[in-house]
Amino acid sequence: MAITLTQTVTTAQDVAYTVTGALVVLLIGFGFGFMMKRLLYRLFHHLELTKNLARRGLIYDFEGNLSSLASWIIYFCTIVIVLNQLGLTSLVVRGLLGIFIILILLTLAVFLRDSVPNFLAGRKILLYREVREGNMVRLQTIEGKLINQGIFEMRIETTLSDVLHVPNSLFLKEYGLHNSLHAHRQKK
What we know:
The protein is α+β, with helices and mostly antiparallel strands. The protein folds into 2 domains: 5-87, no CATH class; 127-187, Roll (SH3 type barrels), CATH 2.30.30.60. 71% of the residues lie in helices and 12% in strands. It has a 4-stranded antiparallel β-sheet. Strand 2 and strand 3 form a beta hairpin. Helix 1 runs antiparallel to helix 3 (62-86), helix 3 runs antiparallel to helix 4 and helix 4 (89-128) packs parallel to helix 5 (168-175). Mean pLDDT is 82; it is low at 178-188.
């Protein structure tokens, strides 16, 4: 069966309209994602999210990271819509979703590997209160005043006025609280 010139032109027009529509959706979605990132950052900054959480011992750039996360979710949804419009959704989305899930699981594993021991050590230190803010502490070659006890880390101001962030698990291991805490439990 011979393909006529009219069928070829019609097919080319359909492909051109589909690709043009996909590009327009892509530009609009990426623009919307960028605007939402800026708006959310300003909202979180106005609410002083990072500053309020830092008072509770969580020192992290929540404003920037949450607004970036929201924009990346919008970018991802935009790409899914564009691929759907082009008819390439199922294969590409399955592959990307698999990679995304693997990355999230790896990130979660690394986060938990570092955070759980520090959290447990921080709870132990805060529970027994053998070291308090303002006490002088010595860790290996570092000596200074404990200026902040957080749930994940301690901040120590050295004699040279440097502020060091020491993970609670290292603090507990190096300072030797585990021996005195173990002796404290045996007394009871």
